[in-house]
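Hey team,

Filing this mostly as a record. A colleague (T.K.) asked me to run one chain through the structure pipeline before their review meeting, and I want the input and output archived in the tracker in case anyone asks later how it was produced. No errors, nothing strange. Just documentation.

Input sequence:
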Amino acid sequence: QVQLVESGGGLVQAGGSLRLSCAASEPTFSRYRLGWFRQAPGKEREFVAAVRWGGGSVYYADYADSVKGRFTISGDNAKNTVYLRMNSLKLEDTAVYYCAAGPVSSGDYTYWGQGTQVTVSS
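Output structure:
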């Protein structure tokens, strides 16, 4: 069973930046797609970004429309870690951010981290 541990959350002013990290307990990129989701108070969990490894130094990324151009997801296969760089943060980005892993061949996510809080203040 893959264990995922997120870090890097915190309090930041609007317009600022944060980088989230998600470390996996075992090599994952060859078998799994890794993604970030978030859940704001009173709202459903939503997709933020996902990345899958294309071999070598190639990674393929997808983003929710709400974060395109502001967030960047990246992976480090050697470190079994996926990152989410968040720039130009907005108040509405405030949420608990979760890392997840799912089989490359499936649209589902099987493993989830415990989440890390991101709070954007005005």
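Quick notes for T.K.: The CA atoms of residues 27 and 88 lie 31 Å apart. The longest strand covers residues 46-55.
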